Description:
Blueprint: H1 2-33, H2 42-70, H3 75-105, H4 113-140, H5 143-151
Helix pairs in contact: 1-2, 1-4, 2-3, 3-4, 3-5
Amino acid sequence: xxxxxxxxxxxxxxxxxxxxxxxxxxxxxxxxxxxxxxxxxxxxxxxxxxxxxxxxxxxxxxxxxxxxxxxxxxxxxxxxxxxxxxxxxxxxxxxxxxxxxxxxxxxxxxxxxxxxxxxxxxxxxxxxxxxxxxxxxxxxxxxxxxxxxxxxxxx
Length: 155
């Protein structure tokens, strides 16, 4: 149990960093919606749609990791929690990529580029931490579980 706790705690810490970066990124991009240079920008609206997805999936993965740290009641429950956490991480990664595309297409006058630069920084940070969490979880669980996560449909 102590080994499992330590393993999932490390993955959870990376997800927590990812969620922190998500919070700052969402704060910046939401504030941008109210600035005249960004107001009604369809690419920023698309970015916000992806933010809802990344937030949901990252938080679900983190919740599963917290439950794993407490300890699953059975091996089957542990498997379900791991597979769903992994699938949620994969979904978050997919929506982060869509957010990247939207962010790349936003253009504003030079005096507002600092907003985009700050957003890109925090977007990079949420990518980085999610990638580390995924790498750690994938290396720690049976390959079959990760394959099941890749094949899983969350819809």
